[in-house]
Amino acid sequence: MNEVKSLGAKELNKEIELNVNGEKHSLSVAPNKTLLSVLRSQLGLTGTKYGCGAGECGACTVLVDGKPIPSCLTLAVAVKGKRITTIEGLSQNGNLHPIQEEFVKSMAIQCGYCTPGFVLITKALLDQNPNPTDEEIKQYIKGNICRCTGYVKIVEAINAAAKRLRKTREVKI
Q1: Helix 98-105 to helix 115-128 angle, to the nearest 10 degrees?
Q2: Are 59 and 116 in contact (CB under 8 A)?
Q3: Which member of 10, 46, 70, 90 has the lowest number of beta carbons within 10 Å of its beta carbon?
Q4: b/e string for 108-140 if b means 16 or more Cβ within 10 A?
Q5: pLDDT in tens, 91-147
Q6: What is the pLDDT averaged over residues 40-52?
Q7: How many CB atoms sit inside 10 A of residue 80's CB?
């Protein structure tokens, strides 16, 4: 008679290394675990939010090699070896990133649930286009949903951050 060995969850896990916010993490993860789940449950990085689970709301946005991706749809094993940035990785030495500061100053935050996704998508936009028009901003953020602010303050914050970052770049040059 043939015996079938039942594999436990640990035997199915994959050993991977993730580079998150500049730190390397060796992890054992199930092949079907999303990046969102690993960030929150295994690494304790809870700034990335679960919103819709379908990649439609932007609450779970993180940057992978500088590009915004929905972490709720991305398998953790698919991003091994890539550079992952979460909202926790933007602040430096306890100081908020200029984009974060401008969101606060512009009062673009109400409940705050969508804010990490908006801040990270803004980072990706401004890295790509340091001087976007309002229309380019609206087009770029259209995959991120905010149920509180009506987007006016968010666009104002992005414009303020773009202006501030352009000045910083001019000083460095």
Answers
A1: 120
A2: yes
A3: 10
A4: bbeeebbbbbbbbbbbbbbeeeeebeeeebeeb
A5: 989 999 999 999 999 999 999 999 999 999 999 999 999 999 999 999 999 999 999
A6: 97
A7: 16
**Is 49 exposed, middle or buried, given 0-12, 13-18 or 19+ CB atoms closer than 10 A?**
buried
- The CATH fold assigned to 14-89 is Ubiquitin-like (UB roll) (3.10.20)
Percent of the chain at pLDDT exceeding 70: 92
The CA distance from 148 to 36, in Å, is: 23
At residue 169 the predicted structure's pLDDT band, cuts being 50, 70 and 90, is: confident
98-172 matches 14-89 in CATH topology: no
In angstroms, rounded to a whole number, what is the distance separating the alpha carbons of residues 49 and 47?
6
CA distance 140 to 159: 13
What residue spans define the domains of the chain?
14-89, 98-172
Distance CA 170, CA 173 (A): 5
Lookup: tokens for 171: 């000083």
Residue with tokens 């460095």: 172
- Residue 6 confidence (pLDDT) above 80: no
